[in-house]
Amino acid sequence: MSIYFTESHEWVRVEGDSATVGITQYAQEQLGDVVFVELPDSGKDVKKGDEIAVVESVKAASEVYAPLSGSVTEANSALDDDPALVNSAPETDGWFVKMVLSDKGELDGLMDEAAYKDFVKNL
Amino acid sequence: MTKTADTAKPLPLADLHRKLGAKMVPFAGYSMPLQYEGIVAEHEWVRAHAGLFDVSHMGQLEVRGPDAAKALEALMPGDFIGLKEGRLRYSLLLDDNGGVIDDLMVTRRADHFYLVVNAATKKADLAHMTRRLPDGVSIEERSDLALLALQGPAAADVITRLGGEVSTMTFMRGSPIRIKGSEIWISRSGYTGEDGFEISVPVKKAEKLAKLILDDKEVKPIGLGARDTLRLEAGLPLYGQDLSPVSTPVEAGITFAISKRRKMEGGFPGDERIRRQIEDGAKVRRVGLKLEGKQPAREGAAVYSGDAKTGVVTSGGFAPSVGAPIAMAYVAAADAKDGTELKIEVRGKKLAAKVVPMPFVQHRYVR
């Protein structure tokens, strides 16, 4: 299992051909109180960089992008009742979607944890 | 975003905001605190205790001259001739078509009128008023003054603990008072729906006063984010979103800003159109909407009655004290009645919403 990060502050945990996607601690701090998350239906096919979800904080709506191409297998229904999970546990219980990857070669374009930490430090 | 924040003008309390851990954002040309602890926590704190807002970006103006009251009546629909000393009136600068140029507070002081106008509009307001005020009536911007707002149920106790005498001051009244040896101007007014005060203080003394107020354990600093959610719940329009030259006061549902005598006599810009709308009703109205579910609708979202577009959201978001998303919108008069079921389109989805009376959260003014 490996975790990767994007410059738009999504994380993706990869296990074989499956992946779980969410937004980072840094992203939730920037967004502030999350009040609603619009999630895709399972079965939806996405390309890397497509809008995959929208997260609404008190102050604004922000898009979340697919870090990798593939097909959505599950959206986190716990976020319907408790969108604040994105604030309290962004990198665990506050995950957004699970997906099956179609092109693992795309992983090359993502950052590992150390690279992402450096990236955030320089923002 | 960061670049704009750097070029935006700092507020007099910029250092204090930074020390308090504020996240600063550019707003109306100023670098303003968006939040300290978090918008929802700050919002809830104001409803339960008291919050201190730095609103020094707003314009503080003084209008003086023997005919100042009459001159202001030629620009706004308020009764300023009849306004007693130490009383505030919410008013509107109107264009000749009855559209709203700005909304503002007008206070009669002993020898002049004191106006508080919006930050984004203050330059244009000054130009407009300078052009229209007659000889012998002057207008001056007091950029040497800071403006603080202390809002919430504990606000009066906080001022009292600092030695300020406000026990006989009711809503929409103001007077000079002394706090710790300094004279400040204070009025019982605000933009949250809560009891509270607005305090005009020389820039040089502002930080000291802010620190004294923040030393009270009932007070926390509150940013622009919570200011917006609080005013939205209180049903108070925000200029530039809910008010603009496109809409008249009747359409905006703020005819209370047109004093009784002025309604009868007219003599303010756009009076014909506005008086006709008061008689016959306006074609569109600003309404409050409560949404079903949790998804918020924001400024610009289209509002539908059945399949027909009836209007547009001008402000909207999650309302912490309501626990649901709410919005203000302009809709066709036929769809403006309380209880009307409408839809708001957000990213292709139509969300169910219902017209509800405003305020969304009861005002708690001390009258």
TrEMBL record, chain A:
Domain Lipoyl-binding: from-to ranges: 18-100
InterPro entries reported for this sequence: 2-oxoA_DH_lipoyl-BS, Biotin_lipoyl, GCV_H, GCV_H/Fam206, GCV_H_sub, Single_hybrid_motif
Annotated Pfam families: GCV_H
Coiled-coil parts of chain: none
Source superkingdom: Bacteria
Names of required cofactors: (R)-lipoate
Record bears the keyword Zinc: no
UniProtKB keywords: Lipoyl
GO biological process terms held by the UniProt record: glycine decarboxylation via glycine cleavage system; protein lipoylation
Secretion signal span: none
GO annotations of cellular component type: cytosol; glycine cleavage complex
Summary of the function given for this chain in its UniProt record: The glycine cleavage system catalyzes the degradation of glycine. The H protein shuttles the methylamine group of glycine from the P protein to the T protein.
UniProt similarity note: Belongs to the GcvH family.
Family matches, as PANTHER family: GLYCINE CLEAVAGE SYSTEM H PROTEIN, GLYCINE CLEAVAGE SYSTEM H PROTEIN-RELATED
HAMAP family for this protein: GcvH (MF_00272)
Protein name: Glycine cleavage system H protein
Gene: gcvH
TrEMBL record, chain B:
Keyword NADP on entry: no
Catalysed reaction equations from the record: N(6)-[(R)-S(8)-aminomethyldihydrolipoyl]-L-lysyl-[protein] + (6S)-5,6,7,8-tetrahydrofolate = N(6)-[(R)-dihydrolipoyl]-L-lysyl-[protein] + (6R)-5,10-methylene-5,6,7,8-tetrahydrofolate + NH4(+)
Cross-referenced SUPFAM superfamilies: Aminomethyltransferase beta-barrel domain, Folate-binding domain
Domain GCVT N-terminal intervals: 14-260
Residues annotated as binding substrate: 198
Domain of life: Bacteria
Protein name from the UniProt record: aminomethyltransferase
Organism of origin: Pacificimonas flava
